[in-house]
Structure formats: structure tokens, C-alpha cells
Amino acid sequence: MTARLSFKLDNPYALRQREIIQKVAAEALELPLKDSGLWFHNDVRNNFYYACYLFAAAVDDSLLPEAVREQARQKAETVLLETVLLQNRQPGTHLYGHWPLGLDPLPREAAPHELPVEIMGSLLIWFCKHYNSQFSAALRVAVHTAAGHIYRSGFFRKEVVHYGHHEAKYTAAKLIFGQLFGDEELRADGLESLEQTLQYIRAQGMPEYGSLPWFWHWIQAFTCAWELEEDSAVQAVLSEMLDYLWHERAAFYLRGAWVGAHSRGWPHDVPADRNVLHDYVQFGDFPLSGDMPRTEYAGFLFYEAPAGARELALDRRNAIEVKRLTQKVAPGDPQPQPLLHSYAYITEGYAAGGLWERVEEFDNEQLRWAYSLPVSGEGEVNRLYFFHPGEGYRAGDPRHQSPYMEVLYHKGTVLSLFPVPEGTDNTIAGVLPEGEWQQQEQAVYGLVKEVYFAVWLSHTYQLASRDGYLEVTAAGKHGAVAVEAVTAKEAAAAGLNSLTEFAAAMAARKPVFAAEGVGAEAALSITHTTFTGDLLRLEAGKDNGTVTAVNGSPVSFAEYKV
Question: pLDDT tens digits for the chain (562 residues)?
Fold first, then answer.
């Protein structure tokens, strides 16, 4: 019997989703179950996702060989049923209607957690709508019962105050469960929350700028609601939200890479863009890696991005500067939060950029700036960046930056000063993607995927091979780094046809690093003339704060818009 998923040869989106379903289902079919009857104990949701993909493939007449379909279906139902029954089904208890998150050592004894139901609850309703007729009687009863527990738990009955991914999921769930249970008051609340959120982010930008992987929870929650919505007027508002979100994604897109600053980034997002399935389905201009660290519902949910967003994302023949404004939210604080300025320079071969301001983000996961290269099919590290390690940092995980960095962004060049206080470890760290690199004193020159890089440091440095990248470390007071990227095409136009020639040319234009004074009062500066002849100046530590200038004029933020 064929399920609701139909894959037409003239529908590239559906074909890419089919590829994801087949890959995940094949892996799930071969993956042995633990004694608990589940595949994973680290996150209950992974069992749900994998079981959904395996079930979908098993009941389709073209996604798995006929000889294994019944085995696949039984295995999928076993995991789905066991996962659904882990829900707290005791009314009046703490986190009633919720699932546990981590399941060790015994899943059935694991305490419920507030997070899984946020996204899994809505996705369960979607899956039930499309596959309910093919469930076994036991699974059908369990899923319908679970939906009732979710609705009665009321986990989504919260006001919108932070404009973040949690509230986005609550808003979608209000619409989904309000419709499912005929609760018009809840649906009205959901629509109000949706309109309030849309109005805010249109006016102020997304407080969760470049937040990975949580942006994809925005996409999935609202796409799920959009697909299930029966009221055309409400669906139209959901379309407005999804159009906005895909325009936001397209603005910072380069062949699977999410360029520029990130308020958050997990290890599968930094230093490599590996959580790319939604981009793969939507844009399809990069190869799919065999490593899919966060499948979620990319193979099921789909909303076609507006034509303008797709055109912007897919056509990078002409270099473009992206200058955006956003603002954090501090509920209860009567003072307006400062504006944040996000910059990106995107070319056909690479992108560079970041946030001008340092912001304290959840779990200290801000990635302030980076160079990004297009995503490959091997899951390779595709970012280059430097930072001073801060709270949460540990060796081998190049995230968690300190606040001690001042920056200047100008097209393909990034200047960084590190005014680290006395008594604090002043070692700075950097990530270089794998490629051809030449070391020189206080400089390293590289060629990676048709892009040349010049990296200059104010101190001697060490290189260490890490998993998929080179780690740079440099210790010493008054640290500074300058990085410039030049495409191979640009270099060739200037008569530079090899890394050796590029390195020689760039060595002749090394930046000037300076420090005046001693200790915390020292004034640091970088002066650099770029490959194209622009004079850049970055100063920090003087009485007038940080100074950024291009060709003698202060950097202007007048062109930055929400």
C-alpha cells in the first residue's frame, strides 16, 4: 500500500526528501535495538524521528525492497509504540503529558522533561494524520491517547515574551491542538501569538540571529502548522511567517553554509555546517553528506520558499554586502536593549562577516564572526575564524568565546583585537579548514576550495591537527589577528596563479600591529591595506573606546536595516 508521500520525477524537492527518507530508513533498519526496544538513549526524539522515517519507507511501495518492508514496518512500530508510551500519562503530576529527554539507564524510569513535547508533540499529530490508517490498532490507540494527554497538559499555554524558538513552537502547537480538539479559544490565542511574533520580528529582527539548530525548529513548527491548518485565513498568516523565515535564511546562505554571526551554534553547526537537511531540500545546490546529525522532519515537512528568497540564495555571481539590524529582548527591563549590527560579505566562493557587538548568549554559544565556504558532501569543516576562549570552552570544541574581542569587517577582510585583562590567559585560538597552507613567521597563507586566505597574527603561533581542521593558538599580551580572503579568480586577474605567488604578494602588505601603553590601559591597533587597496584601521583601548575606519572615514551603520 502506498502512503501519503508521492514522489514525482518533476518535483526536485520531493525527490530530495525521498533521498533523506531512504538514507535514514536504511540506517534505522540495520541499527540494532537496545534491550529497551529503542535505538537511542541520548535523546528520546531521535527514536521518534528514525521510527517515523522507517515506517514511512516501509509502507511505501518504492522506498524499500519488498522483501524487507514487513520487517521494517514491525521494527518501526515497535520503536514508535515504546517511544509514545514513555510519556507521563498521570494527570496532576509534574510535567504531565511530557516525555523524558535523556533515557539512561532505564527509559521507562526516566523523568519527564519540558523540551521534547515542544516539537515532537506537533510532529506526532502530523504523522498521525498522514499514516494513522496504516498504524496497528495498538499504535493507533497509543498515539490518539498521547495526543489527548498533550492537549490536556497545556504546555503551550504561555505568553510570547522572548520571541524565541520555544515560543514559536508553543504558538504552532496552540493552532494545531486547538484545531484538533475544537478549542476555539486556544486557536484564537495561537493566532494572536503568531501575529504578535510576526509583527515583532518584522520590526525588530530576530533576537535569535543565526541560531542553530533552533532556527530549524521555527521552520518545522510553523510548516507543520501550515500543512495541518484547515482555515485559509490562518494558513495565510502562517505563510507570511514562513516567507519571512525563508527570506531570513536566504540572506545568509551560501551553498549550504549559514554565513556570518550566530547567537548559538551546536557542535554539528560549528565549526562545520553539518545540520543542512532543510537547506538541501529547499535549495539542493550542494551534495548531501552521508553524515546527517540532526534528521528531525526535513524529509517530511516542506514549504516552498518565495521565489525572491530562492533567487537570492542560489545566485551569488555578484558579491553582496548584507547589513542587518536586530535587538535582544529583556522582559521586565524598562530600558530599550541596544541595537545589534550584523554584517556579511557574500561572494560566489566564500563569505565573511559577523556581529559588530559582543552579546552574552545562552550557554555562551555566540559565534562572533567567521569566513564560510560552501558545504561539501563530506561534512568537512568549512569555516575559518579566531576567538579568545571563554566560559564553557574546552580543547577540541572551538566554541564558547570570551567578551575580549573588538572587530572590523570590510568585504573580504576581518580585523580582530583581543584586549584581554591582566591575569587572564591571553591565548587566542583559531580554526583553519583543511587545504594547502604555507607557514611563515606570524603569518599563514592558504588555498582552500578556490579561495586564498592570508592570516596574520601579532605573535608567534602553533598549529595542531584536529578533527577536520587545523587549530591555531597564539599566546601573548595585546593579541591581534587580521584575515583576508581572495578568490582564485581575483588572484589570477592580478597575475597570482599559485599559493606561493599569493603568499609572496600578501607578505608584502602585512598589517601593522601596535600597542601603546601597558597593562589593561594599553591602546591596541591594526592598520591594514587590503588586496584591493582599501585602508582599514581598528583601534581599541583608548579613552574614546573602539575606533573603526575605512579609507579614513569612520564605519557608518546608517545602511543597516532590519
Answer: 233 455 555 799 999 999 999 999 999 999 999 999 999 999 999 999 999 999 999 999 999 999 999 999 999 999 999 999 999 999 999 999 999 999 999 999 999 999 999 999 999 999 999 999 999 999 999 999 999 999 999 999 999 999 999 999 999 999 999 999 999 999 999 999 999 999 999 999 999 999 999 999 999 999 999 999 999 999 999 999 999 999 999 999 999 999 999 999 999 999 999 999 999 999 999 999 888 999 999 999 999 999 999 999 999 999 999 999 999 998 888 888 999 999 999 999 999 999 999 999 999 999 999 999 999 988 899 999 999 999 999 999 999 999 999 999 999 999 999 999 999 999 999 999 999 999 999 999 999 999 999 999 999 999 999 999 999 999 999 999 999 999 999 999 999 999 999 999 999 999 999 998 776 678 999 999 999 999 999 999 866 689 999 999 999 999 999 9
Q: Which residues 6+ apart lie within 8 Å of 127 measured at CB?
A: 52, 143, 300
Single-letter amino acid code for the residue at 308: G
What is the distance of C-alpha 457 from the center of its chain?
Answer: 29
Residue 143 identity = V
d(CA 71, CA 160): 45
What whole-number distance in Å separates Cα of residue 119 and Cα of residue 221? 7
Q: Which residues pair with 461 in a beta bridge?
A: none
Is residue 171 within 8 Å of residue 190, measured between CB atoms? yes
pTM score, whole prediction:
0.96
Question: Is the bond leading into 105 cis (omega within 30 degrees of zero)?
Answer: yes
SS3 286: coil
**Cβ count near 191 (within 10 Å):** 19
DSSP per-residue codes, 14-52 = HHHHHHHHHHHHHHHHHSPPPTTS-S-SS-HHHHHHHHH
Sheet holding 406-410, edge to edge: 406-410, 413-418, 479-487, 451-457, 443-448, 436-440
Q: How far apart are CA 555 and CA 562, in angstroms?
A: 18
Q: Which three cell numbers stand for residue 37?
A: 526496544
3 state SS for 48-111: HHHHHHHHHHHCCCCCCCHHHHHHHHHHHHHHHHHHHCCCCCCCCCCCCCCCECCCCCCHHHCC
Sort 230 into a burial class: Cβ within 10 Å, 0-12 / 13-18 / 19+: exposed
Contacts of 199 (CB under 8 A, 6+ apart): none
- Residues 6 or more apart whose CB falls under 8 angstroms from that of 326 comprise 204, 205, 206, 207, 209, 339, 340, 342, 562
